[in-house]
Amino acid sequence: MKLLRLGDRGPGVADVRAALTHLSFLPAAPRQPGDEGSERPGADLFDESLDRAVRAFQQSRGLSVDGIIGPDTTRALDEARHRLGDRLLYYVASRPFVGDDVAALQTRLSSMGFDIGRSDGIFGPRTEAAVRDFQRNRGLEPDGRCGPQTLSELKRLERTVTGGRPDVLRESTRLLVRGPSLLGTVVAIDAGHGGEDAGAVVHGLNERDVMADLASRLEARLRSSGLETFRVHADDEAPDDAERARRANERGADVLISLHADASDSPKAEGVSCYYFGNAHGSSAVGERLAMLIQKELVSRTDMLDCWTHPKTWELLRRTAMPAVRIEVGYLTNPRDAATLGSADYRATIAEAVLTAIQRLYLPPEQDAPTGQLRVPRVATGP
């Protein structure tokens, strides 16, 4: 698809303007006599007011705030059109319903204690199972479809249940039940970009090759401590985020780690950051904790600037069934960060930090160690 940005003009721009006006990110233009059936003058121009509205929308949806209408923003605009009750919702394996109406349904069910996993806005099998459980509780036919009767019961009970995060308690309990041993833990490793997609190329480095090397180092370090790993794509291919998530889900990974380097128009931008799935409806509780642990370990072991952790709705984080974290390990566009990224020692430190964070994720509080002090032993192999 063609990207739309400041200065562009055309029917696609007018459609974006109409969508953002409908969502109240832009004020509705007053109609003048004779305007009926026609667009207002300038509606097809991507001007500064539309740029500000696009950025505000992206911020509200957990997207990268760049003012550009690309695939992620287009998808989010489409999903925002749907309100709970606008359409019949049910599970379709080949093409699940996706949208704000699904997220609203998930949030209501979760607040009542039904296990939907997380509010990702995708009507999957767990959401269907939660709808069936709700219907049984209310004496309705448990067909897993959110139609008028089910919606009426949801609205009737809307004010009777408030507060709490049952999903957080469930995820935390699963970790405790699993125990602290890392043996057999399956980690999916996603090296950013790949194939003909080199990512950012600057200061004599390209993101694809640096991340491929880092992924290999991380894989070797994890395996040396008894974890199982697999790469979600080969070095010579670059599947989209949805396909990467599908592969990780298919293999039943316990954790997914996605590796990227950042880039900016400003050479002053620097530092490391971690991202997990989260939006206005909720977040991945374990993903958030893992992101925090990785970030703390990275910052404590290096002199990189701490750019914190952040919730995002990127497709890879959203569509993975397991906790997923995307790590931005530095800015290739920053001379100091680029020099650090070119260091084999730094890449080895990243691998050690990620392994330590994964171990800390599974430790009960009384066994956890201070940030930067835990060392995960290697597992003896061979005779």
In short, what is this structure?
This protein is α/β, with parallel strands linked by helices and 383 residues long. Helix content is 41%, strand content 12%.
How would you explain this protein's 3D organization?
Helix content is 41%, strand content 12%. The chain contains 13 helices and nine strands. Helix 10 crosses helix 13. The longest helix has 19 residues.
User: Count of DSSP helices?
Assistant: 13
By secondary-structure content and strand pairing, the structural class works out as: alpha/beta
Radius of gyration: 23 Å
How much helicity do the residues have?
A: 40-55%
The succession of helices and strands, N to C, reads HHHHHHHEEEHEHEEEHEHEHH
Indicate the low-confidence ranges by residue numbers.
Answer: none
- Residue-averaged pLDDT, rounded? 91
Tell me the total number of β-strands.
9
Global outline: globular
Range of strand content? 5-15%
Q: What is the rounded distance between the termini?
A: 56 Å
Largest sheet: 7 strands, mixed
Index terms:
41% helix; single chain; two-stranded antiparallel ribbon; alpha/beta; 383 residues; seven-stranded mixed beta sheet; 13 helices; 12% strand
Give the secondary structure arrangement, pairings included.
Blueprint: H1 11-22, H2 48-60, H3 71-79, H4 100-111, H5 125-137, H6 148-156, H7 166-178, E1 186-191, E2 201-202, E3 205-206, H8 207-224, E4 228-231, H9 241-251, E5 255-262, E6 272-279, E7 282-283, H10 285-301, E8 306-312, H11 315-319, E9 324-331, H12 335-341, H13 344-362
Parallel strand pairs: 1-4, 1-5, 5-9, 6-8
Antiparallel strand pairs: 2-3, 6-7, 6-9
